[in-house]
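Hi there, hope your week has been kind to you so far. No rush at all, and the record is pasted right below.
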Amino acid sequence: MKIRDAVATDVAGIARVRVDTWRQAYTGMMPEDYLSKLSYDETERRLLESYLPPRSAEQFIIVAVDEQETIIGYTIGGPNRDENSEYQGEIYSIYILPGYQHFGTGASLLKGAVERLIERKIQSMIIWVVAQNPARGFYEALGGKIVNFRDRQKSSFILAEVAYGWKDFKLFLKMRTTPDEA
């Protein structure tokens, strides 16, 4: 596995990861008709409109690729979208295909995100996670502290979310992220 900055031609692979991961991870947490209507084409269009290329020098998209350069995960981040927050940076999304979870991919992506935040003089971060998501333990294991809760309108339903925050990146910088070590 390799972590690298995304390029515009990665959009189809990123969309595939997003749609496939949402359908797997959020079954039972989101309405089934909503998940079944997710579209690769629509997701690609939204990514191109919103993130690729990044809207500003502060935003970034990084991807995890396998030996064949197939995208297996990604993260998008940049400045915190809530200007009133005490956290400077935000991870807007992080998704890893189910078959590549629990092998250090998520930790590698987050470490890469932290490195990019530090390059941008951002020293703290927050990430919003679906409250029912069983993967929340991943953020807790990496030192994330619960710092906020919200309900967010998503299409025709309300989604409860929890925010994890990090005020100190030292843990990430010391982290080993190879599959045998993570």
User: Anything to note?
Assistant: The two ends are 13 Å apart (CA to CA).
